[in-house]
Specification:
With 160 residues, the protein is an all-alpha fold. It has a single domain, classed as dinb family like domain (Four Helix Bundle (Hemerythrin (Met), subunit A), Up-down Bundle), CATH 1.20.120. Helices cover 58% and strands 0% of the residues. The longest helix is centred in the last third of the chain and has 27 residues. 31% of the residues are buried.
Length: 160
């Protein structure tokens, strides 16, 4: 059973991702009812689409998870890092697979956080310039940042 410090961090990460919170729409909520066509649409040439934001968020959850558990780099489900050109195939099935990737990685991250000792929170993981605490709170902030972008992109897409 995680201690109170870890429970607070799990609450922060969950509220930013998929649990109800006072601040409004979280990352997973921002994806509700988004179609593959909407997710693939670019606001302008050379700009990221919703789909790319989803995979980008999954990648950084993976990075934080990897650093917390001490796993080697290079095990992300997709080739590359940070930004991934999406979609390769703009089907509802492909869109759902990438959203499922985000969900799966969030679950893995949550599990890694739940198994941390509070003593490790101020420590820096291998390959990280910031503490474990900063990684965890940072990934929650990252989710909310991109949730806001997705909300704006949806309004833009749906106003046409």
């Amino acid at each position: 059973m995680p201690g109170p410090e870890i429970k607070v961090l799990l609450d922060v990460v969950d509220q930013a991702y998929n649990h109800k919170s006072w601040h409004g729409t979280n990352l997973r909520g921002s994806l509700r009812n988004v179609t593959a066509e909407e997710a693939a649409r670019r606001p302008q040439s050379g700009r990221h689409n919703i789909w790319e934001l989803v995979v980008h968020a999954a990648y950084w959850k993976y990075v934080v998870h990897r650093r917390l558990v001490g796993a080697p780099a290079g095990s992300f489900a997709l080739k590359g890092s940070n930004w991934f050109s999406r979609p390769q195939e703009a089907t509802q099935s492909a869109w759902k697979q990438d959203v499922a990737l985000l969900d799966d990685i969030h679950g893995s991250l949550r599990s890694a956080i739940a198994h941390l000792s509070p003593k490790t929170l101020p420590q820096k993981s291998a390959g990280s310039k910031v503490s474990n605490l900063a990684l965890i709170t940072g990934v929650a902030a990252h989710d909310l940042y991109h949730a806001g972008q997705i909300q704006l992109l949806k309004r833009l897409i749906r106003s046409d």
